[in-house]
Amino acid sequence: MSEPEFLISVMDRRDDWCTIICLIGGGQEINTGEAGLVEWFDVLKKRFEHWNVYHSKQLTNKNYSWGEDLKSKLTGLNIEEKTALHLDVSIRSFRAEKLSDFIGAIIDGNAARAKTLNNYLADYPILITRDLNKARQWLRQNARGTERIGLVASSGAIRLKPEGLNIKASIDPVNWFLNDKDDIRSSYYLEDVATEFDIQGLELDWVCMCWDANLRKEEKGWGHYNFSGTKWQNVNDPYRKIYLSNAYRVLLTRARQAMVIFIPKGDKSDFTRNPKFYDDTYKFLLSCGIKSL
Predict the structure, then answer these.
(1) Which among 30, 51, 85 is the end of a domain?
(2) Which helix (H) or strand (E) holds 138?
(3) What DSSP state is assigned to residue 158?
(4) In terms of DSSP bridges, do strands 126-129 and 291-292 run parallel, antiparallel, or are they unpaired?
(5) What is the C-alpha end-to-end distance of the chain, expressed in Å?
(6) Which site among 6, 59, 137, 265 is 20 to 30 Å from 229 CA-CA?
(7) What secondary structure letter does DSSP report for 92?
(8) All residues at 6 or more sequence positions from 73 whose CB lies less than 8 Å from its CB, including other chains
(9) Which residue has the higher pLDDT, 53 or 76?
(10) Are residue 10 and residue 150 in the same domain, yes or no?
(11) Burial (Cβ within 10 Å: 0-12, 13-18, ≥19) of residue 224
């Protein structure tokens, strides 16, 4: 039984009435079994046609629809559109209401739109560097008082290990998020990396997002890869591609005040870290209006 089916089935036992309020973030699904609105509508159609359903007018947005025709799933249900149900102003980054749109344009591979949206981020610095130590120094210099800093990276960023970032070394989220500057386990030390599974739903003030070759810019768009054994392998499953893109979307929206993106230079002597894997991504992000540190 899926999570939506379980929740609705529990509330459906009531003899009088009840309301379920679902806050569903578009593009936030990062793990197998997460299917957003699609699963909710499938369950309503299958078992709970007697419920009244109110939704925003975002059913054609690909971040919610996953390429499916959501409106067709509503046939026969008691449906009413309420435009006000769409919460379209991000409050995670108080300096940048347009941040989520900007990151969305990057994930969509739309450099022109990203560059336009970047003009709205004057109070929210986003920089890019090929030098991790430079990124660390920038975070330490800019954070004030108890403002929190930290490193984040994709759970599939296996080849960041030569840079000293081992994403397989799991963190203790409590220590990482809450401990003070004098604790080497805390995010302040800029040694341990939090992945999308550690940080989803949480934020830091200043973030260094470390980008690996599992999501890389290519001639036809974004290339999705998984490191298996000794080499990178193409991700062909459409759902796994979505999960990977969403992982980067989550990681790129974790900073409340500012962010620096670190992209390695690669190594010509290491076929798993071919400089081209990283250079094209770096050039693309520059074309989106992100300035070099």
Answers:
(1) 85
(2) helix 132-142
(3) G
(4) parallel
(5) 48
(6) 265
(7) S
(8) 38, 41, 42, 44, 45
(9) 53
(10) no
(11) buried
pLDDT tens per residue across span 123-180: 899 999 999 999 999 999 999 999 999 999 999 999 999 999 999 998 999 999 999 9
Residues 271 and 206 in one domain: yes
Q: How many CA atoms lie within 13 A of 247 on its CB side?
A: 27
Domain enclosing residue 49, as ranges: 3-85
- Based on the domain organization, do 150 and 229 belong to the same domain? yes
What pLDDT is attached to residue 87? Answer: 79
Could you read off the pLDDT of 255-287 as tens digits, one per residue?
A: 999 999 999 999 999 999 999 999 999 999 999
**What residues contact 44, with CB distance under 8 A and at least 6 apart?**
8, 51, 53, 73, 77
| Of 253, 255, 250, nearest in space to 31 by CA | 250
Do 203 and 162 have their domain in common?
Answer: yes
Of 285, 258, 252, 282, the C-alpha closest to 138 is: 258
pLDDT at 90: 63
Taking residue 86's Cβ as centre, other Cβ atoms within 10 Å add up to: 13
Verdict on whether the full-model pTM lies above 0.90: no
Q: Would you give the DSSP letter of residue 208?
A: E
Query: Dihedral, CA atoms, 50, 54, 58, 59, nearest 10 degrees?
Result: 10
Strand runs labelled E in the chain: 52-55, 78-81, 126-129, 149-153, 193-194, 204-210, 215-218, 221-228, 231-234, 255-262, 291-292
